[in-house]
UniProtKB/TrEMBL annotation:
This is Cytochrome b. Heme b b566 binds at residues 107, 208. Heme b b562 binds at residues 93, 194. GO terms for biological process: respiratory electron transport chain. It comes from Tistlia consotensis USBA 355.
């Protein structure tokens, strides 16, 4: 249905620049959506809300921040103590990063469970992973800006990883640092990129939404829309659910900001950076810990047995493992050979999915512990399972698993269609809808 309004101002603008019909077609009553989406589909819009919060507070903080090694730490303290509501803006921005990652990680695991990466949504999935990589780069550079102890040493350790790359590694590190150590040029570069990258993320989000609207949203049943009877308008049905989700999100966010503002941070970052004093245990922010655990899991050189020939040194092996853990997700649409999308109809895959979730949670905890004792073999086992899950189990499950019968259409279980399949498939979507 074409966009219509009685408001003369909107009609005047719409005739000259049809922006309101575009919005209506994208997120309004003109956008048909599967009628069985549950609350797990709220996390896409929540990620957009978190991004807007981060951009708004980041711009305000940039007005008061001084990107210089002699003044950066003090400028942050000034924001906290002297700028009107500066403490609130900084706590929103600081904890907003954690909430942004929480929302995005849940969004990704929802996609893994319901098979949202499968054809024809491969490009949609890949653009989402590009957003994740840009988020990681932005968050890492932002963590350096307060110029505390953990900021300085975290930047030193992580940027030094690139030196493991043969031939060009040292040149890359020198370029990142802007010299031969983490110093003022490094801080200036990281500040400039940290300010720029959120707008790059915003641009990729537009492409992500564009790709989403090409084939529409996936749904808990993982079957394609058969016709108008399987859809409802996005507005007002799903906008109401999104408003409810945003309300719950903001309440949880406010509780952390006002009662636990430093819970997800590190106390050493309230100590000014000192290049002559190394912290006893260098750890990144919690949302990097699974990848940090994978980095540290490779404690051995890889070479030709019984010859003493080393092909990949332990440091380079850790770097490859860490970046490979994300890059492997780009291949997921082709690694998963099952013709069925949703784990609701894949009994074996469902169990292995929850094993993967437990594995990633354990990696997060292992990454927070010192790289010694029992934590080293635990990290190695968890890292091995992560890659086995994607490279071996998923291709095999697609060939060996016998999925449950799929409903004929989305409407069948939603409207409580007759038969055991309709009844079984109805329970969860109706319960969460």
């Amino acid at each position: 249905m074409a966009f219509q309004t009685k408001n003369p101002v909107i009609r005047w603008i719409e005739y000259r620049m049809p922006i309101f019909s575009f919005i209506d077609h994208s997120v309004g009553s003109g956008y048909p959506t599967p009628k069985n989406l549950n609350y797990w589909w709220n996390f896409g819009s929540l990620a957009g809300v978190a991004l807007m919060i981060m951009i708004a507070t980041g711009v305000l903080l940039a007005m008061q921040y001084t990107p210089h090694v002699d003044y950066a730490f003090r400028s942050v303290e000034r924001i906290m103590r002297d700028v009107n509501y500066g403490w609130l803006i900084r706590y929103i921005h600081m904890n907003g990063a954690s909430f942004f990652f929480i929302v995005v990680y849940i969004h990704i695991f929802r996609g893994l469970y319901y098979g949202s990466y499968k054809a024809p949504r491969e490009l949609l999935w890949m653009l989402g992973l590009v957003i994740l990589l840009l988020m990681m780069a932005t968050a890492f550079m932002g963590y350096v800006l307060p110029w505390g102890q953990m900021s300085f040493w975290g930047a030193t350790v992580i940027t030094n990883l690139f030196s493991a790359i043969p031939v060009i590694g040292d040149s890359i590190v020198t370029w990142l640092w802007g010299g031969f150590s983490v110093a003022n040029p490094t801080l200036n570069r990281f500040f400039a990129l940290h300010y720029l990258l959120p707008f790059v993320i915003l641009g990729v989000v537009v492409l992500h939404i564009w790709a989403l609207h090409r084939f529409g949203s996936n749904n808990p049943l993982g079957i394609d829309v058969k016709g108008p009877q399987d859809t409802i308008p996005f507005a007002p049905y799903y906008t109401v659910k999104d408003y409810f989700g945003i309300g719950v999100f903001l309440i949880a966010f406010a509780v952390v900001i006002f009662y636990l503002p430093n819970y997800m941070g590190h106390t050493d970052n309230y100590i000014e950076a000192n290049p002559l004093q190394t912290p006893p245990h260098i750890v990144p922010e919690w949302y990097f810990l699974p990848f940090y655990a994978m980095l540290r899991a490779i404690t051995f050189n890889i070479g030709i047995p019984f010859t003493g020939v080393v092909l990949i040194e332990a440091k380079l092996g850790g770097v490859i493992t860490m970046f490979g853990s994300i890059l492997i997700l780009f291949l997921l649409p082709w690694l998963d050979t099952s013709p069925v999308r949703s784990a609701k109809f894949r009994p074996l895959y469902k169990w292995f999915f929850w094993v993967l979730v437990a594995d990633v949670v354990m990696l997060d905890y292992v990454g927070s512990q010192p790289p010694e004792g029992i934590w080293v073999p635990i990290g190695q086992v968890c890292t091995a399972y992560y890659f086995i899950h994607f490279l071996i189990l998923m291709p095999l499950l697609g060939k060996l698993e016998r999925p449950k019968p799929l409903p004929v259409s989305i409407s069948e279980p939603v409207l409580k269609g007759s038969g055991p399949v309709g009844a079984a498939a109805t329970a969860q979507p109706m319960e969460k809808a």
